[in-house]
Specification:
Helix content is 84%, strand content 0%.
Amino acid sequence: MIYLLSAALAVAYARGQSVMSVRRRLTDWRGIACFVTGMLALLGAFSPPLEEAADRLFSVHMIQHEMIMVVAAPLLIASGSLPVLLWSLPHRGRLTVRNVMRASRAREAWAFLTAPLNASVLHGLAIWLWHAPRLFDAALNHEAIHVVQHVSFFATGLLFWSSVFYPRRRDLRGQAVLSLFATAVHTGVLGALLTFSRVVWYAPYGSGAIEDQQLAGLIMWIPASVAYLVASLLVARRWLTESEWVVRLQQ
């Protein structure tokens, strides 16, 4: 199913890019590179070898989750894929989407979901709740729940990265940097708890999997947290540079 959805998304993106390239007379190669890399990361996360290894090793399962949330999601958002996908729709479809988004309730809901602090809370809740032993065990034992887990990681990840990369207003930029920093901290805390725990949290992996759990904790604690911190520095640098140019233009 993931391959069919990915293929449909890739076709829609290619169509949208061709339409936008004609209109702008310019091809967004950076956006295309981000989209392709993000899609490859997403497909890699659900590749049969990784899925099979994730059933046996929690550390591989953690790599899979981080590929979804910290690699695929930000790359797809950085590619500017949403407007491109909208341009892949026929004219009537674009008008329908525009009219829906112009409705006051839809605007309010979207504004709420994409406010940096709100999006970071939703993403954080998804991470912490799904790593609670009962929910995580349920996801391991039931494929439907496992799908819901992955969808929630990916969907809240897209909201989170969209909110920090493209805040709706200039005054939300500080919130975006704070959200990235806070996410680095709380995911690092969860990773540390997994690393230093002396008991196995997730029963399906067996009582002798403590070393594997510690490795999984380190993966969440160090590489993932560093990724959020680096992103916060890059976002802050970009906005400071933009602010400097605005000041220069106003002088």
